[in-house]
Amino acid sequence: MELLVASGIGMMTAVGIYLILLRRAFPVVIGLSFLSYAVNVFLFAMGRLAINRPPILVDGVTEYTDPLPQALVLTAIVISFGMTALIVVLSLRGFLETGTDSVDLGGVEPRPRSGRKRP
Amino acid sequence: MSNWIIVPVVLPAFTACFLVAALRFQLRWQRAVSIVSTAMLFGVAIGLYVLAAAGEPRPYLLGNWPAPFGIVLVLDRLSALMVLLTSGLALLVVLYASAGWDEKGRHFHALFHFQLLGINGAFLTGDVFNLFVFFEVLLIASYGLMLHGGGPGRLKAGFQYVAINLVASTVFLFAVGLIYAVTGTLNMADLAVKVGQVQAGDVALLRTGALLLFGVFAVKAALVPLHWWLPMAYAAAPAPSAALFAVMTKVGAYSILRVYTLIFGAEAGPLADAAAPILLPAALVTLAVGTIGVLASRTLIELACYSVVTSMGTLLIAVGVFDALSISAALYYLLHSTLVAAVLFLLVDLVAERRGRFLGRLIPSPPFGHALLLGGLFFLTALAMVGLPPLSGFLGKLLILDATRDSPQSAAIWWAILGTSLLLTVGFARAGSVVFWKQGNGRIAGPRTGGTRVLPISVVLVLLALTAVLSIAAGPIMHEMNLTAEQLLDPARYVRAVLGGGRAFASAVEL
């Protein structure tokens, strides 16, 4: 099981890194999601892999699994979900306003106040 | 009295929610509430600094759960200083923004307070995972602030900024996971104890975690080679947001200071001074790269962004030596560089606003309004930023040079700081003379400049006056900084304060 989980995390990280190095917004977003899946499983595994053990006190049980990584993973999932939603909206707006989903600035200078409306 | 420690986190949270829920459409009321709340925050920050200066670090146990089991906030001299700096800057920035920038999009003030919540939380937390959570809070608010006003250029730069920070957050989680797997705790005080007792077989894993964490902080602190997001993002951000972001890079510097003195500091056994071999060279390169950026910049805003990179380089050089003298010099320089970076961003905005279609580009333009006043202010800011007398930049660099005199790398440090100061002088002189002296004929067709523009300029004046105060009161301030550095380099005091020394500590070790 350790080998399976470890290689799964490794595969997801590799896929994620490959995708975020591409030049279009969509693969970058998918790559970031892959990275966050990988880190979630990684955090989960940091409490050691255990099967059929309760995380909270139960009568007559002596073997427990570590509940803290599970709480950390929950927090991490919520945060990465919010961040993914944000970056999806951002790339969609970027695509609609510029007509391209290329992530580089395309030789356009980052003009300081190009979007500013004059009063 | 210790209950006040939670206020810098709770007050902005309530203010932001109130602004979104109740005052969504009343901009005037939003401004009033926002300014009053920030002023109250500043008052509380002063009170907390007095509290922290009274002696030992103070923990605040949320829900009264004993550390290391519960969540803990810790107030010591360093965190109190950072909260004070943040809230003071925030008060001035919110005044500046209320003069017009907040009309250009919705929810500026709410996002501003969420950002303050994140920054203050990051400074006060005593737990590595909560540091991650507060990082995320301040980042998600900063995305909103950066995109305030909209526009394609800002969206493209914003996408890159969000993407790099999401990758950094993922790395942060990997580091947290590794550290937890080895030590079984994420409470900073508890970690400080456990890291020293780590088994020989786990040292490599823990070192990996420590260095991954350093990578994340290096992204936040814009350390070369992880600095390239900064000029792009800050140049695209609206001026008041960029001015507040001046404190955000300092969150990275603060985290480096905190984690690599407390957890992986001199007393961490096999992991002692984990970051020191990388930090100093990287900081030297950062200073050089930032200087080249300043010389090569084609707009005033690029100049401001790269000078932030150089100031982070200088600051982290002093931090990288990791002794009491240089850390106190670094803290003084931190105060100075935050204020001056904020002045520079606001000033660049004021200039660009008056130059019409020329914006901040470094090409001669026809005469524009208030050129003399703005030119004079730019001159003073440049003096402070470059490090020429009489403003605080000179003293800051002098203190750093003096503190690093006995370090083995002193030759490299002196060469780097003195050489780049000369080049920075050239860069700023070139920019200033092109923008303010080489004025052509004709008249600028920019926006009118009326009496309503007094507030922004007075904010800039107050910020500059504060840097003057920094240099006039350098003696007492350095005394405080020395005490702060001493407290920082004595992790035992922090650990004793948080874990209580007695029973709680014993049970923590037992587990």
Mind explaining what this structure looks like?
- The complex is a heterodimer of chains A (119) and B (511).
- In chain A, 61% of the residues lie in helices and 0% in strands.
- Chain A has 119 residues and is an all-alpha fold.
- Chain A has one domain.
- In chain A, α1 packs antiparallel against α2 and α2 runs antiparallel to α3.
- Classes of the chains: A mainly alpha (119), B mainly alpha (511).
- Chains A and B meet through α2 and α3 of A and α5, α6, α9 and α13 of B.
Shape, per Cα inertia axes of chain A: elongated
Give a quick account of the main beta sheet of chain B: strands, pairing sense, barrel closure: 2 strands, antiparallel
Average pLDDT number of chain A: 83
Assembly form of the protein: heterodimer
Number of helices of chain B: 20
| Global structural class of chain B | mainly alpha
Order of helical and strand elements of chain A? HHH
Question: What value does the Rg of chain A take, in angstroms?
Answer: 20 Å
Q: Return the domain count of chain A.
A: 1
Strand order of the largest sheet of chain B: 1-2
Shape of chain B: globular
| Helical amount of chain B | over 70%
CA-CA gap between termini of chain A: 63 Å
The end-to-end distance of chain B, rounded to whole angstroms, is 31 Å
Radius of gyration of chain B: 22 Å
Strand fraction band of chain B?
under 5%
